[in-house]
């Protein structure tokens, strides 16, 4: 779709202070959308503004505060957008973070914090936007899931559970909204070079007395190595940009080598064999 088809169209993106959200905001602005770039802390806006300026699209980026875990913040942001623009054409539910650790050792508080942002936050933003899209009888919702939404890995229980919840939610939502012309898509990235690992799993302190110590160290070594060699996150923003131009998109878009291989592996191999491959991959990081 060239920008003449998108001018006057609006895209709401959550979590645009860094990573995929930031790049997606710039990419969609480049495609002609008026992008409402939301973040929970507007003091983190400078990187987005400087990248938008460099790309020559800063006039199409409109900053707004939104913490997806705060229902007042979600409601008031969506109300301001509809008042100012009258419509929301694309919603990219991107905000998220990763809680890791072995299941027994992750506190219930951390479990809840993970679900509050990655799942209930996404549900809250979607529910706020649905009446607008339903009445327009048109819209596109892109939910950023993960390779962890396709398969649970050891040491990633909370993150996997939150992304599996996003996957099931998106399957239901897609079928409920298709009669209203609202399309729902899952983007499932493998590992990409964004700040997510430093903010979450990278900061885990290993408890020397833990019965899971060695296994957790294995997972952390694997994650560190993968994060260091991970590809450019622009691939994900570009994919999201391309999806906005598809009139009848698929449900799932795995992106990155890990996700695509896992998708094929799950279709072809018995689960026991996949488990062995995952265990071998983790050991290989030693
Ligand atoms: N990078 C990967 O390898 C990878 C792979 C698969 C899926 N993903 C998914 O991609 C999405 C984006 O992650 P990323 O890799 O781009 O990481 P990132 O650079 O850390 O970006 C995450 C964004 O979400 C925001 N956020 C966190 N909690 C929020 C809240 N309560 N309300 C509003 N915004 C909030 C962060 O804001 P702050 O700056 O304030 O923290 C940040 O803007 C996440 O859903 C993640 O699970 C990432």
Describe the structure.
The structure is a single chain. With 286 residues, this protein is of the alpha/beta class. The protein has a single domain (3-283), classed as NAD(P)-binding Rossmann-like Domain (Rossmann fold). It contains eleven helices and seven strands. A seven-stranded parallel β-sheet has the order 3-2-1-4-5-6-7, sandwiched between helices. Strand 5 (139-144), helix 6 (157-177) and strand 6 form a beta-alpha-beta unit. It is globular and about 55 Å long. The structure holds NADP nicotinamide-adenine-dinucleotide phosphate. The site of NADP nicotinamide-adenine-dinucleotide phosphate has 30 residues, from helix 2, helix 5 and helix 7.
A few lines on this structure:
The chain is of the alpha/beta class and 286 residues long. Helices cover 51% and strands 13% of the residues.
Number of strands: 7
Q: Helix count?
A: 11
Instruction: Report helical residue fraction.
Output: 40-55%
CATH class division: Alpha Beta
Mean pLDDT, all residues: 94
Strand neighbour order, sheet with most strands = 3-2-1-4-5-6-7
For the sheet with most strands, the description reads: 7 strands, parallel
CATH superfamily: NAD(P)-binding Rossmann-like Domain
């Amino acid at each position: 779709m060239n920008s003449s088809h998108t001018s006057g169209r609006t895209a709401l993106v959550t979590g645009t202070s860094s990573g995929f959200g930031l790049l997606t905001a710039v990419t969609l602005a480049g495609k002609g959308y008026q992008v409402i770039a939301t973040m929970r802390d507007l003091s983190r806006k400078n990187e987005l503004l400087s990248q938008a300026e460099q790309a020559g699209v800063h006039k199409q980026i409109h900053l707004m505060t939104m913490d997806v875990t705060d229902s007042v913040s979600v409601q008031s942001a969506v109300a301001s957008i509809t008042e100012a623009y009258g419509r929301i054409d694309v919603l990219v539910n991107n905000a998220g973070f990763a809680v890791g650790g072995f299941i027994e050792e992750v506190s219930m508080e951390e479990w809840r914090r993970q679900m509050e942002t990655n799942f209930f936050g996404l549900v809250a933003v979607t529910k706020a936007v649905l009446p607008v899209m339903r009445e327009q009888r048109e819209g596109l919702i892109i939910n950023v899931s993960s390779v962890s939404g396709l398969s649970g890995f050891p040491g990633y229980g909370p993150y996997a559970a939150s992304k599996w919840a996003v996957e099931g939610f998106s399957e239901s939502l897609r079928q409920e909204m298709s009669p209203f012309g609202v399309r729902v898509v899952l983007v499932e990235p493998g590992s990409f070079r964004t700040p997510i690992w430093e903010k979450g799993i990278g900061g885990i302190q290993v408890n020397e007395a833990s019965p899971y110590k060695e296994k957790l160290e294995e997972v952390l070594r694997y994650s560190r190595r993968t994060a260091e060699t991970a590809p450019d996150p622009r691939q994900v923003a570009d994919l999201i940009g391309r999806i906005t131009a598809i009139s009848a998109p698929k449900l799932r878009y795995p992106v990155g080598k890990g996700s695509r291989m896992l998708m094929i592996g799950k279709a072809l191999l018995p689960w026991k064999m996949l488990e062995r491959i995952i265990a071998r991959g983790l050991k290989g990081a030693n």
